[in-house]
Amino acid sequence: MKFGGTSVATIERIKNVAQHVKREIEAGYDVAVVVSAMSGKTNELVGWCKEAAPLHDPREYDAVVASGEQVTTGLLAIALQAIGIKARSWQGWQVPFETDDAHGSARIQKIDGTRMLESFARDREVAVVAGFQGIHAPSGRLTTLGRGGSDTSAVALAAALQAERCDIYTDVDGVYTTDPRIVSKARRLDRVAFEEMLEMASLGAKVLQVRSVELAMVHNVRTFVRSSFDNPAQPMPGTLICAEEDIMEQPVVTGIAYSKDEAQITLREVADKPGVAAAVFEPLAAASIVVDMIVQNVSADGATTDITFTVPSADYARAMDVIEKRKAEIGYKLVQSAQEVAKISAIGVGMRSHAGVAAKAFKALAERGINIRAITTSEIKFSVLIDVAYTELAVRTLHSLYGLDAA
Ligand code: ASP
Ligand code: MG
C-alpha cells in the first residue's frame, strides 16, 4: 500500500490510513505501507534549501528533503500500534533501497527485502516504509528519487517483495478518461494497460510518477490507483493498471491527455541535405533539452525545407539560445516560435489494430475551426499541437468523438 501526501496530511488522516491498513491485515495479508511526506512538507523543505543557498550541495539537499518521509513513517507506526497492530518504521537506508548517486533524482538499483519478509513471517509486523528515500551504498549517503518518487518506491518494493498487488492510495478514486476538471463527463476507468498509463503519465495526467509505471510494466506489478478518502470499511476498487492481455474489452481510444507546457520552434529555409537534422538536434541534446514533436517538410524546390519541433516551456529560452548561436552551422533563414501552444493526445492500445483513428480527429477539430500546427503519432497514440486557447474545446471534442463521455 502507498499513501501520498494528502492522505497523510494530518494526524487525523494518518489515523484513517491506519484503518485502511488494518482492513488488509484482517483480510490475511502481510502489509508493507509506503508513505510520502505530509502534503506541502517537501515543498517547504526544498524552499528552505534554496533560501539557505541558491546553489547548494545536492547531497545535503537530499539529507533535508528526505526528512519529511521519516516523520510520517514514525507517525503511522505509532497510529497502527495504538489500534493494536504490530508495526515498525523503515527508512530507505534501513531496508535498504540502494540507488545510484544522482542526488535529487536517484535511480533504484537494488532492494533487499529479506529482513522485511522475515519480520512478516515472524510476527506479521506491518512495515511502514519511507518513500522517496534511498542510499548510495559506496558513499553511504542518503539519496532521494525525484519529486513524486514515493510512487516509484512503492512499485519497486512491491516487485522486490513479489507482492500480490500494489495499491496506490491518493486523493482521486482512480484514473480517468481525461481531466475531470475540464470534461465533466470524464469517466473513471476500471482498467488501463501499462503502456497506456505510461503515455498518460508522461503526457500530463499527473496521477503517478512516470518511472513507477515503467517499473510496474517491467516487473508486471498489478497496480491499483484508489482513493484514501473512501470509508476504510467499504473501499472502492479504483483503477487497475495491468498487462494489455488482462483487459477483455479494449476500446480504440482509452483516454485524452493534454499538456500546456510546450513551446514550438520553427526553422525556415533550412538546407535540404544530409546532416542538417543532426546539426539542429545534437546541440539541443547536448544541452539536455528533450525535444518532443519533430516535423520536417518535404522540400518543394529541392534546395530548402522547414523544420518544426517542440520543447518543454521551461527549456524554451535555452533552446532558442542554442538555435540562434548555431545559426551559421545549421544554415536557416529565419526562426519563428510560439509559446501559447498545447499538445492534445489520444491514447489507446486499440489503435494498433484500427485504421483511421487519427483521421477522424483531424476532421472533428477542423469542423470546430481548430488549426493543427503539428502532428505526431506512435503505435498507441497520436498528438496534435494547437493554440492553447482551444485546449478545453479540443479535449472535449475528442473525448466525445471516441465515445468516452459518461452517460
Ligand atoms: N514527498 C516527495 C515529493 O513531494 C515524494 C512523494 O510525495 O512522492 O515529491
Ligand atoms: Mg504523487
Mean pLDDT: 94
> Helix- and strand-based class?
alpha/beta
Low-confidence stretches: none
Number of domains: 2
Approximate shape: globular
Largest sheet: 8 strands, mixed
* Alpha-carbon Rg, integer: 24 Å
Count every beta strand, where a strand is a DSSP E run of 2 or more residues. Answer: 18
Notable traits:
407 residues, alpha/beta, Carbamate kinase, VC0802-like, 2 domains, 8-stranded mixed beta sheet, 13 helices, 34% helix, globular, binds aspartic acid, binds magnesium ion
Brief summary of the model shown:
The chain is built from 13 helices and 18 strands. It has 407 residues and is α/β, with parallel strands linked by helices. The longest helix is centred in the N-terminal third of the chain and has 16 residues.
Task: Set down the secondary structure blueprint.
Layout: E1 2-3, H1 11-26, E2 32-35, H2 41-52, H3 58-65, H4 67-82, E3 87-90, E4 97-99, E5 108-111, H5 114-123, E6 126-130, E7 133-136, E8 141-144, H6 150-160, E9 166-170, E10 191-193, H7 194-202, H8 210-219, E11 223-227, E12 239-242, E13 255-271, H9 276-286, E14 294-296, E15 304-312, H10 316-325, H11 327-330, E16 334-347, H12 357-367, E17 374-378, E18 381-387, H13 391-401
Parallel strand pairs: 1-2, 1-9, 2-6, 3-6, 9-11, 10-12
Antiparallel strand pairs: 4-5, 7-8, 11-12, 13-15, 13-16, 14-15, 16-18, 17-18
Helix pairs in contact: 1-4, 6-8, 7-8, 12-13
This protein binds aspartic acid (ASP) and magnesium ion.
